[in-house]
Q: What sequence folds into this?
């Protein structure tokens, strides 16, 4: 088979590259379940098993999974969502291809839904009170899948009910600066309805920023310039192309935090303490509703007032004006916009499904791999493209397991999270419930949400220690499509950076809070990664794939436009499977902690360059930070040398375990639950939100920004000093974790 | 030797008792340093080595240590304190009897000292401004050791400077209730000087409570009723007996938290962020000064006003009146009391000394054993009696180590903490600096502060998992003095309780914040214990040993009155050595986690009995707590069974390590850094302060107390529900830690 030859060559190349992680290969116990661990305490990654798994991951089965998963809309907590819980349980309990065990665990969480009796409604109301125009209440039924009671109408989850009415203004992306700009232009904002477009800032932020200016309600739409590379005509869009049709509306959660809103830091068990929803924070302060660009065009292209600046213009085919109100000569002269939102908060049951393959040697070390299950509508891309891959990988591993061909060294935990779309709720509740156990035992968390955005290249985010294992995997797998490049060699063509240590390498992004990895990295300090196949960014400027969170994200859409043949899905399955197996089976954990040094150096240099001069004026020295980074680097290098030396000599499993514990727990050393008390769950001092200001230590950057206009000796400058100390202490603690364990 | 025979018998008895902890004994590697760990991965506790160590712990060497340690006053950060740092380093680096390595680490911490130029002063000032009486500024020089520049005059550390003057009132122990009682009696408190006696509430609380009533300054003395069993005459007290002389004054820290006051949650490194001392919290709000009972008698026995109630009376030989002011007919008629405090806050260097014996098999598991080094004056009892024991134990172990006779399985860390007297500062800064490393790797912390209060019996505090290992040790060692009882059998005569599981056992107290174990248990969740020899409580009601924190706590005092022959010191050394070796060398960790079940059951029953009815009225169910306690119990029992089964069969070192990790990390599962935000460092949901109200879950009890007078639906009742959820989640997390590691 051609594929096998390619793989063989790539494997050979990877071996030549010699990452030094795979060591002596010992026999894998067969048959016994669980096998006697003493027989295999030195069990290492088996390249043959890895090759077998790569070979068995089947594109057509991923396609079938996707068809089944996306057959019906499966909004969180809906009967269809619950049906998928049962599907996952059946698969993971299958006697031929299932896992060692599988369970569903259910939380009682606060979700938000539009009212069925009183649909949300956006209308232009004439001076006499007549409705002159109504926006669509649902998307156009183009493929027969956009209708029916299970398609939730477009809405802004967690937006409060209300029926504000006022003059329309156009507020670009609804950022703080956008509203300030309107104010500067003399546009009266009080009592208006602000039309905004998606992008720039988070969904909820648009309402938060608007409310600060006494705006009464907010509309959001997706501009064809931002999603369709400008195309907006029906015959240019789905089902004629992959572009968003004029009636398509992005649904989404407008909640500002993540996790169940009523049970911060506590698992949402039925008996758990719950906040009063009336006093819970993080919900949009004013009504907000998303609409399609077809309707947005009617509103926007009839506005009066000054023309918006070039940056604010979009692709609706008219000059975007700012308002307030419609042009006097037009059909809506003197009209206002009425926004009727009737969303309701409801306590609902939402389940995670967890499946485990018991580690044969170190069952108390967990490699977690998860994706959410809930969608907004059919969710073929989001999230079922990920779940389809998850199921195929669990099938292949489960089959080897049930045959007794293979048992991983460490435990593998598969997770299907519930209610991610409402704010990473299932995964967050899971981390709250098992905080202690996970903090002690989790080796890494792998997230695949949308597995395929597009067919161009692999894309990965993660903390520095996972870079090397993703690279190792990507070098071993052929890229889909013509040519014989590896996924790695293809990837480096699209996203790359110049590393001071390695030269040109694919660039691995950092982890925000866009999917279920967030509680794992930010709250628990578990080395995490997010993997997908994605666009050629030189060919599209789309924010995301065009039908994101709409009723047009269907199986047909994927099959026809996103990944015909499902080879990109297969590529993701192989990459993830390869990474997963390296993490679960390698004797020495393939977490390259010294790759943190590069991040720390770049953060340090940014701090010295951009913050240093003003810090010096305020007598705040970066000297201790320089020392701490150096200490970390030295400790990481020395640990690498100890591992190499051990690999060359003789060693016993306890020695390997102790070193692996240092590697696994390094990420935990960067946690400080008291560092950012106002940022719920964010405890990782290197990856807390940075306000997009500067790629440096985030607490330091945020405190600096708040202090910059205050007097010397202010509380804000004291906080800068405190944040600096927090980073220094974390780095020194991290260095201590890496140093020889019996050093004082 | 008689002693050997006794020990032999006790060892035999202990073996018969069969605690099932010591398993198959493997050869201990000799010579190599460090030995090849692979040769000894199944290394277990060696009863012969244990017996050797018990035999070599020498009372006369402890006596010599004590003499050397207490020769000079060694107040924290003084040159004499620094000289002891060097002494410890010499001992621990000795080529014949030292440890594998030893280091001093220095923090820059905020201490408080009286001014040398302006001594603190308490005087009675007549109506015309004449000083009619002055309290002593130093203790009487009875043995030649109470004079000289290195004897710090009595003072209240961290009391603010000030020179308040006002009418004197007597306020008993200065509790909230005491001041309320004075108020109820119509005693005008505003602007007065309140005379209080030690005991009842913490030192700092007396000033805090007084300030709430606008008292201007506070005096504190030790009543002979509370310390001397009533004796107060010079010929009844030291140097004629062990009782406190009339001029003796208890010094102490009046800081309300622990750790360096300027660097909460951060190690006090020179570059660390520091709070502005003017805004730091926890200092006494008004001047306060301790005095001797000789001077207190002059003040108290001349007061006018109503007689204090019987509970408020003491042993000064007069009727205690409440004031305000002195009796009209007496020599101080119309006089006021002037209190001049000139204390200064100073940043000082204070060192910890750390010594380590590298574990031969699991160097990354630490058994810590510490005591503070700093004293108020000579500190023969406090803390040198503990340091003398520490040095003897480190000598015996170091000698075996240097000879190559023995290497522990796990690492042993000896610690000599600095600046404990000012608020557990050295130990707290250590836990802040190495939080992550310790949380991952520390098996247990053993504290011996004052090793011998008196000669009657062993006394121990600790978390439930350490009870069994203390019992095992105590059963193996003969009690000092006549008779052939073991320490255990002697102990049970003095302090005992009826355990539902074990029947009559010695009672192990719970850990407050009285010594350096506090940051280990409360902040880090490390199983901890505190061990000493102490009084026959039926023979004395003294608050502590009489010369506590005075200049009379000298070597001669110990030798003559506290422990002539040093056999109680030796008994403590043997007990601690035995516990330490069991923790460091046993293949299976001797932490009996199921002993937590008894605590949980008793907490639960107290909650059900005393809080249950009112909780029910507020619709708060204890049902989830009952379930969580049951889950914990089942998991603990099942884990015990798995350990027993493993011990009977074959096992490899990795399996033992995994089980030991469950035992070690159980205590961590009870930590929740967000449970008690107002209680600095307290994160352990079972051992946070309880306000002495009820022996139950502390957060629940405190919240209940605050809610009890509020309306249904109040925020205070919501907090009760939140605290209940916090406990339930912690217990469920603890149960998850104990369950089979590959269970979902």
A:
């Amino acid at each position: 088979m051609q594929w096998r030859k390619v793989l063989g060559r790539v494997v050979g190349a990877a071996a030549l590259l010699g990452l030094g992680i795979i060591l002596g290969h010992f026999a894998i116990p067969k048959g016994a379940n669980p096998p006697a661990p003493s027989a295999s305490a030195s069990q290492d990654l088996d390249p043959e098993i890895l090759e077998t798994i790569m070979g068995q991951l089947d594109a057509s089965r991923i396609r079938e999974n996707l068809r089944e998963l996306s057959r019906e809309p499966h909004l969180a907590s809906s009967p269809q969502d619950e049906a998928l819980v049962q599907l996952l349980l059946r698969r993971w309990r299958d006697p031929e291809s299932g896992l060692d065990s599988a369970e569903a665990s259910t939380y009682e969480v606060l979700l938000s839904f539009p009212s069925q009796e009183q649909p949300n409604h956006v209308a232009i109301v004439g001076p006499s009170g007549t409705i002159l125009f109504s926006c669509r209440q649902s998307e156009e039924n183009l493929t027969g899948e956009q209708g029916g009671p299970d398609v939730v109408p477009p809405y802004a989850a967690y937006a409060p009910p209300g029926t504000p009415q006022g003059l329309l203004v156009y507020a670009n992306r609804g950022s703080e600066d956008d509203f300030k700009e309107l104010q500067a232009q003399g546009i009266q904002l009080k009592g208006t309805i602000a039309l905004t477009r998606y992008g720039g800032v988070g969904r909820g932020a648009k309402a938060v920023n608007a409310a600060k200016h006494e705006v009464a309600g907010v509309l959001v739409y997706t501009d064809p310039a931002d999603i369709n590379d400008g195309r907006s005509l029906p015959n240019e869009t789905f089902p004629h192309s992959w572009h968003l049709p004029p009636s398509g509306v992005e649904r989404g959660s407008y909640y500002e935090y993540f996790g169940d809103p009523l049970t911060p830091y506590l698992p949402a068990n039925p008996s758990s303490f719950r906040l009063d929803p009336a006093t819970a924070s993080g919900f949009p302060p004013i009504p907000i509703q998303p609409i399609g660009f077809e309707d947005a065009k009617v509103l926007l292209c009839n506005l009066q007032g000054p023309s918006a600046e070039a940056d604010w213009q979009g692709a609706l085919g008219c000059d975007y004006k700012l308002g307030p109100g419609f042009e006097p000569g037009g059909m809506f002269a003197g009209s206002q916009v009425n926004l009727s939102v009737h969303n309701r908060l409801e306590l609902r049951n939402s389940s995670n499904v967890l499946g485990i393959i018991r580690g044969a040697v170190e069952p108390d070390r967990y490699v977690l791999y998860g994706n959410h299950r809930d969608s907004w509508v059919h969710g073929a891309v989001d999230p079922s493209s990920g779940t389809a891959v998850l199921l195929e990988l669990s099938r292949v591993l489960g089959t080897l397991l049930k045959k007794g061909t293979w048992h991983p060294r460490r435990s593998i935990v598969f997770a299907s999270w519930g209610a991610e779309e409402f704010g990473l709720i299932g995964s967050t509740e899971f981390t709250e419930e098992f905080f202690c156990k996970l903090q002690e035992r989790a080796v890494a968390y792998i997230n695949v949400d949308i597995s395929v955005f597009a067919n161009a290249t692999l894309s990965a985010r993660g903390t520095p220690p996972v870079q090397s294992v993703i690279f190792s995997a990507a070098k071993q797998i052929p890229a889909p499509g013509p040519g014989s490049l590896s996924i790695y060699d293809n990837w480096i063509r699209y996203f790359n950076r110049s590393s001071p240590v390695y030269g040109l390498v694919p660039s691995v992004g950092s982890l925000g809070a866009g999917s279920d990895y967030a509680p794992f990295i930010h709250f628990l300090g578990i080395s995490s990664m997010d993997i997908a196949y994605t666009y050629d960014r030189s060919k599209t400027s789309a924010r995301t794939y065009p039908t994101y969170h709409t009723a047009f994200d269907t199986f047909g859409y994927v099959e026809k436009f996103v990944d015909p043949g499902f080879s990109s899905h297969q590529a993701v399955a192989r990459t993830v499977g390869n990474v997963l197996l390296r993490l679960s089976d390698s004797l020495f954990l393939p977490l390259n902690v010294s790759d943190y040094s590069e991040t720390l150096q770049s953060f340090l240099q940014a701090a010295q360059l951009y913050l240093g001069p003003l810090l010096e004026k305020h007598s705040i020295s970066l000297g201790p930070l320089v020392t701490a980074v150096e200490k970390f680097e030295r400790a990481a290098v020395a640990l690498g040398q100890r591992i190499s030396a051990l690999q060359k000599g003789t060693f016993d499993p306890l020695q390997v375990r102790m070193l692996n514990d240092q590697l696994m727990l390094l990420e935990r050393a960067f946690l400080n639950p008291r560092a950012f008390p106002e940022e719920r769950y964010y405890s990782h001092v290197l990856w807390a939100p940075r306000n997009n200001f500067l790629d440096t230590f985030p607490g330091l950057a945020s405190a600096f920004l708040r202090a910059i206009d205050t007097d010397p000796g202010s509380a804000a400058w004291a906080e800068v000093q405190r944040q600096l100390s927090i980073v220094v202490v974390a780095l020194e603690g991290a260095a201590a974790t890496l140093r020889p364990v019996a050093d004082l």
